[in-house]
Amino acid sequence: MHYLIYCDESAADGAFYSDFYGGGILLEKDRQKMEKSFLLCKESYKIQGEMKWSKVTPYALEAYKEYVDILFGYIRQNKLKIRIMFTQNVNELTAAARAKYRNQNKFYRLYYQF
After folding, report:
1. Cβ neighbours, 10 Å, residue 33
2. What is the rounded CA–CA span in Å between residue 109 and residue 84?
3. What is the pTM of this model?
4. At what angle do helices 61-76 and 28-44 cross, to 10 degrees?
């Protein structure tokens, strides 16, 4: 069996959480069907580019709901496993220390989960 891992990160700082990392793992044989269902969803709502929560508007809300329903459908079918991680800002580092730590360790924490 061959697996595919999709990874993404966001180094944005928030009031309570920062350094968001996410990834999904699936069987290679399921990729084409899954990609097609996501693309068809986007096309049916005339969504171009990446689906990002920062782009949700009242006009695009139904598209995002359907997209998430497709995503969770694959998770329920055990065809997709998702990991989402973040750092909590309780022990706040200085901006310089956080940037240094981020640069040195940004992908290791994500890959460790897989």
Report:
1. 10
2. 11
3. 0.73
4. 160
Q: How far apart are CA 12 and CA 96, in angstroms?
A: 14
Beta-bridge partners for 5: 25
Helix/strand/coil for 26: strand
**Residue 108 amino acid letter:** Y
Residue 86 to residue 18: CA distance in whole angstroms = 6
Written as six digits, the tokens of 70 are 């497709």
**Rounded Cα gap, residues 74 and 34, in angstroms:** 8
pLDDT tens series, the chain, 114 aa: 999 999 887 777 666 677 788 899 999 999 999 999 999 999 999 998 888 888 898 988 999 999 999 999 999 999 999 998 877 766 666 777 777 777 777 677 666 655
